[in-house]
Structure formats: structure tokens, C-alpha cells
Amino acid sequence: xxxxxxxxxxxxxxxxxxxxxxxxxxxxxxxxxxxxxxxxxxxxxxxxxxxxxxxxxxxxxxxxxxxxxxxxxxxxxxxxxxxxxxxxxxxxxxxxxxxxxxxxxxxxxxxxxxxxxxxxxxxxxxxxx
Length: 129
Prior knowledge:
It is a single chain. By secondary structure, the chain is mainly β. The protein has one domain (7-125). The protein is 10% helix and 41% strand. It contains two helices and nine strands, in the order H-H-E-E-E-E-E-E-E-E-E. It has helices at 7-14, 17-21, and strands at residues 25-31, 46-53, 64-66, 72-75, 80-88, 94-99, 104-107, 110-111, 116-125. The strands form two sheets. Strands 1, 2, 5, 6 and 8 form a five-stranded antiparallel sheet that branches. Strands 3, 4, 7 and 9 form a four-stranded antiparallel sheet that branches. It starts with 6 loop residues before the first helix and ends with a strand.
């Protein structure tokens, strides 16, 4: 059975997210599924990049941090269907990834190059098992 942690401890861990990411983190949307190996970029095409700036996440609550400033918009750099997202720190390292429908919401999910894409939801959670 996996370990468990009280919500205060999970919140404290998540509240370090902004510091860990640095001041120029990005959320990148790709076609296809996330890479099977955590920390690696997906094999798909980079479709949309959201620059997150300094301290992009609100304080943790109930084991979750939520991106502030939603909705956010960005311009698609290529055409395709968004299948996954990766969170990249200021050094360009992949720190987390999600398949479409897990933790982020974009409109539309099928994009054309130069189209505006709206990020309407994004959160990171440390749930109890």
C-alpha cells in the first residue's frame, strides 16, 4: 500500500512549486501521448507553449496547486490534436507530464497553426491514495 500524508504536509510540499520552477517555466502542449519515461519530452509535435512567468501557482489547498491567471491564451505553432502536456522548469527540464484530460483543459483540442488556444484549467495535485 502506498504511503499517505496529511493535507497540511502535502500543501507544504506543493507550495515549493513556484520556487522549484524558477521564473520562466512553460507549459507545453504536444500531439500524441506523453513519453513513457518521466522527464523526457514527448515524441509528438509541439503545438502550443504557455509562458508561466514568476510564481504562476496559487498557494496549495487540499493537496492541489492551481495555475493563476486563467484563462490564458497562446498561439499554436503547428497544427494537430493536443494529446499531452509537459511542465518545463526555467532550465528546460521536464518536471511533470499529463495526458490530455488529466489536470489541464484547453479549448480547442484540435488546433491549426497560428490559431489562438485557450488554457482554461491547470492544476497539480498530491492526492492521498
